User: Fold this.
Amino acid sequence: MRSSQVKPLLKWVGGKRQLLPELRRFYPTTFNTYIEPFFGSGAVFFDLHGSGALDGRQVVLVDSNPDLIGCYQAVRDNVDAVADALDALADGHQRGGHEHYYLVRDTRFNPERDARRDATGRIAYTPELAAMLVYLNRTGFNGLFRVNARGAFNVPAGRYERPHIADRARLHDVSAALSDPRVTLVLGSFVHAHAIARPGDFLYFDPPYAPLSRTAAFTSYTAPRFGSAEQAELQRVVLALATRGCQVLVSNSTADEIRDLYDQNDTARRAGLRAFRVPARRAINSKAARRGPVDEYVITNLPRHEP
Ligand SMILES: C[S@@+](CC[C@H](N)C(=O)[O-])C[C@H]1O[C@@H](n2cnc3c(N)ncnc32)[C@H](O)[C@@H]1O
Assistant:
């Protein structure tokens, strides 16, 4: 088996790199197609890819964010042009800092996205647009991707001294991983998984987490909102797939609604699912330590291996 780490291209809210040690304990040893319906920055896909576990297998990566899918497609199809454009943006940032960030965001990125968006919401990303998304992601506040009611990306500049913007090697690794003809990128809803998954397939679901409190729900930036109706619909899809003989792995918060959907739920148990509470964020600074230990749910019909 190959073992070459490929780091995700983007910083993404809810990125799962920290949870990988827990998730790896559930990876199945045999499976057919790998399907990841909430792709985001793809921490689990790149982890599986790096270990060689996906070699020779079909892979379907789904996300409902048209910028994300457009960006990955451009990186896959035209990586050198993306890398050149990113170098130029990194130079501009070194000279112009925040001013450059806002200039790119408001006079180039948003107008270009508007011009290239079709009636279905898909955005035909050019290499320049992809480079701008990577640049804004690396230099913007907390790597957030947030749009306003009119669909304009409106994240303010971040406060980084020397942001790490251009990384040709990483762009090439990501492009190579996505260029495998067996890998398909799909712009769409997680429900797509229900339509395509067959017995023996392995699916990892990492939806926007259910908020732990009302305040968290109110300040959530997720747009369009992934609310209780969507969490319930996802539970129905996951149960149906488990019953179909698919190998499912789900992560979510330990909010009461998630406990009720999967942990204290007879239908979920009958479908063969178990819910594990696993430690989430490591306390890396005093602020995080003050928040106390946070658990997350890992919900699955797969056996857990010893660490
Ligand atoms: C928690 S993030 C996934 C993070 C990912 N596992 C990672 O490591 O970066 C959730 C993702 O689901 C996507 N999403 C939100 N609603 C969706 C839906 N209804 N169907 C498919 N994807 C959706 C968001 O665009 C976001 O990228």
Observations:
- DSSP finds twelve helices and seven strands in the chain.
